[in-house]
Specification:
With 99 residues, the protein is an all-alpha fold. It has helices at residues 4-28, 34-56, 64-98. The chain is elongated.
Length: 99
């Protein structure tokens, strides 16, 4: 199992990467509607804050095995969210290029 510190680093790294990509999309496509891109950024920041909070404050009554399961669920949620967000950014670009 990776450490909590490493899990937080992964969450932060993916967050910063997604936000950086989103701003690059806006910079390279000035005609693109900013609203949906900013929505992706806002949702990502909210998810990041929630996941970091879950990593920092696991439930006190949990044993080691239960805590590991909790961290595994956090990692799975992290992967799902960032995959979905990167896909949404790609779809926004595809729609822009079709028009």
């Amino acid at each position: 199992m990776a450490s909590r510190k490493e899990l937080k680093r992964q969450i932060n790294r993916l967050t910063y990467e997604l936000i950086s990509d989103a701003f690059q999309v806006l910079k390279r496509n000035p005609d693109l509607d900013r609203g949906p891109v900013m929505d992706v950024i806002g949702e990502t920041v909210d998810v990041r804050n929630r996941l970091i909070g879950q990593v920092n404050h696991p439930e006190a009554e949990q044993g080691t095995a239960e805590r590991r399961k909790g961290y595994r669920k956090i990692r799975e949620e992290m992967v799902k969210h960032f995959d979905r967000s990167f896909t949404r950014l790609s779809q926004l670009l595809q729609v822009e290029k079709k028009e």
